[in-house]
Structure prediction request, 262 residues.
Amino acid sequence: MRVEGQVVVVTGGAEGIGKALARRFRREGARTVVVADINEVGAEAVASQVGGAAYPCDVSREADIRRLVETVEGRFGPIALFCSNAGVAMGYDLAADNVAFAPNEAWDRSWAVNVMAHVFAARALVPRMRGRGGGYFLNTASAAGLLSQIGSAVYSATKHAAVGFAESLAIAHRSDGIKVSVLCPQGVDTPMLRGLAAGPQSADGVLSPDDVAECVIRGLADESFLILPHPQVADYMRKKTADYDRWIGGMAKLQRALRGAA
Ligand SMILES: NC(=O)c1ccc[n+]([C@@H]2O[C@H](COP(=O)([O-])OP(=O)(O)OC[C@H]3O[C@@H](n4cnc5c(N)ncnc54)[C@H](O)[C@@H]3O)[C@@H](O)[C@H]2O)c1
Prediction:
């Protein structure tokens, strides 16, 4: 797909990867870029840079997403591309003595933002897209959703669920003309990454959000399900599926080394 002339929504568009996507979509000639974020001031700032519209929205609340879709389509027309990009990284501790240490609040919040927001977007938009013969979802997960995030079971588990939901969406609605891409980077230089301790997410190099946005444009043009800004991730996936036990052993060794260095 090409975003030129289209209405595009980016959640989590006030910062980091979402901000870069909003800017890049504008450069590609999107007709309207809607920047939806819980951070209203940040969303306004990005929207004014891209000549788009800001929309205050907490993606963990279904009513917010439903209202976002209704308002945007009422004002600007059909949403061609909906990017569920907002995400949270919680429960990160390389030295935790129990991997299940994170409080339930961290699990609930991560589940709501990293997974349910994608479900809510599909629930609001699939009937509309089906009715007009198609549409496109770009869901930001993470390489942690394909491999693992050493140090955060919360992040790993919710990002795996996000990948699983994107697969279901792509499979179930292909015949409705609905396309799906899932974005799975490793380290990207954003406020989120800067808030975490150094870890394997940065081992293959930290990309800029603009690099990631460039990969997204290519991935959308090819309509690839999996968008991997760090190509090494495909090799790691092959190694994981070729010999799962060996892969677990290697990751456990890496965890011990990182814990020792922490
Ligand atoms: N930065 C990385 O290294 C990295 C790597 C892989 C995947 N990701 C994923 O990329 C996405 C963007 O991450 P980022 O690094 O740009 O993060 P970031 O923290 O820099 O920006 C996230 C944005 O999402 C917004 N947001 C958070 N919760 C929200 C909510 N409930 N409703 C609406 N907006 C909300 C924030 O206000 C912020 O503007 C996330 O899904 C993240 O998990 C990031």
In short: The first strand starts at residue 7 and ends at 11. The beta strands are 7-11, 32-37, 53-56, 79-84, 135-140, 178-183, 226-227. The chain is about 50% helix and 15% strand. The pocket of nicotinamide-adenine-dinucleotide is lined by residues 11-12, 14-18, 37-39, 42, 57-60, 85-89, 113, 140, 142, 185, 187-188, 190-193, 201 (CB under 6 Å).
